[in-house]
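Protocol step 4 of 5: obtain the predicted structure for the target chain.
Materials: sequence only (see below). No template structures provided, no constraints applied. The aim of this step is simply to have a reference model before the mutagenesis design in step 5. Sequence pasted as it appears in the construct record:
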Amino acid sequence: MNLILLPADCADTVTLTDRALVQHLGGVLRAAVGQTLKVGKLGGRIGQARIAALTADAVTLTDIACLTAPPPKLNLTVVLALPRPKVLRRLVLDMTAMGVQTLYLVNSYRSEKSYWQSPLVCQIDDYVREGMQQACDTVPMAVHLRTRLKPFVEDELPALLAGKQGLIAHPYAAATLHEQLPTAEPMILAIGAEGGWIDYEVALFAAQGFMPVSLGTRILRTENAVSVLCGQFLLHSHLSAAGLMAQNHR
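Step 4 output (structure tokens):
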């Protein structure tokens, strides 16, 4: 936990009673009264606060000053076939931390119906919060659930794709993701569940203008593919920003 998220409307002093947070401060960080911590207001700016009181049940923060803007999001929306519930937390946390703007969790041929009934699906907001605290961000990734793929792709996706480039990850595609990254357009990236998209689903996305892309000949597990694909966007965004700053200083 690299940042403590505060309520959006908190004033100069706030008392937090989240048990996991209090235990982390006392047991992991060994925090003490008077210590300064990095904080951020939900949906707002980042700054610092001082511990005024710390017990086994609550922490009171004071002198809250949040003046720094949160890190920018990637120009990236991810459409992800609902994965196994046991890896859902890690994937949502990682995508949030990397700065993905919006996530659509959708059904697919290889997504088991039982996945949607998992109690872990109801904890997505908690995973997003973890990702923000990891990456020192205050703006949550928007998450939407779509249990029917065909109506989503045909009826909803065209409007979402306006002004964006659509890519679908497919290990047998001729084009590579690297070839598409130089574009400045915002992107929507579709990633399949374990085993990838079936041919029918690839064709469904392709009919809406999505281009199949690959990372090469190696077939990765879903959690690895998500990290590698989104990591490529994060790296490209960082290098583009660094290049722009260098040009401005010439």
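Step 4 remarks: The chain is about 35% helix and 25% strand. The mean pLDDT is 90.
Proceed to step 5.
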